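FIELD: query
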Amino acid sequence: MSSKPAVASSLARIVIFLLIAAAFLYLMYWLWQRQPRLNKEISQAKKNDQVQSNTEEKNSTFDPKEGTVLEDAQIKLKGEVGANSYVAVYSNDYRQLTRSNDKGTFETGIELSDGLNIFEVSEYSQELKKVGNKTIMYYLLSAKGKLAIDTVYAGNAKNIFDNLLTIGTQDGEKKARASKPTVIVAPSDEEESKKEATASVLSGVRIGDYVIALGKKDKEGLLSAERIEILRENKPKANTRILATIIAGDIKSNLFRGKDEANKVLEFSIAKTTEVVINSQKGKNEDIKKDRKAIIFFEGGDKNIVLKIFLI
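FIELD: result
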């Protein structure tokens, strides 16, 4: 009678052992099936990152390439847009209008100020329809010399991890790595001045700060920062607006009207400092007449004060 329970117990142990063995083999098979796929996904992700980096390099249609650190204030900006387009290049201090040729290339001279220079490049068709807009920036560092600096990243600080800074630029997020030799130019702050010397090199940077990182970037776009400037007040802000329009009526009492992209009528005012350009020559206020095409640079606000107007 006692042999039957013993046999049953042995069979139970064998069944349990087989179940455990089967589960172990299935787990190993499952892991084996996933491993090549995981490696493939990682490899593909790295490949995609490299392709994106290379694409950004190839898609640069400006010379000098946007984000370049330059030593000469006077430069010739060259670019590619549509054929026979109007091209407006402007900043808070500079406004110019040129045209592309039959091949879609254009060239215009611009003068840089010390430090960060941010320009808008707007393209318009011959019918004054806006085709596109691109923000480009350069950094003028006249004393660059032999410093290992060729690139500038500028924008709001998005993330800080140890010595790695993520910057939200007009072309997406960029990364800059700081090190002990990195020069940090921060606003004077009593609390920050009391920080220990052992603090992280990026301890003075706050999320949301406007940062300007200068250095040399590698093939993946990672910037080895030589210098990082921090702005909390007086952050770069575009004060100049642009409108391509047809004048709605002759100028009267230094006022005239035009329609914006939403077909809304805007009234503009002429100031003593307003520049009028007609056929690449200096014009007069009286040249602003009804039904004339115009590209207007102005200060937004109640009065829409015209800074410069190109009559076409």
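FIELD: remark
The radius of gyration is 31 Å.
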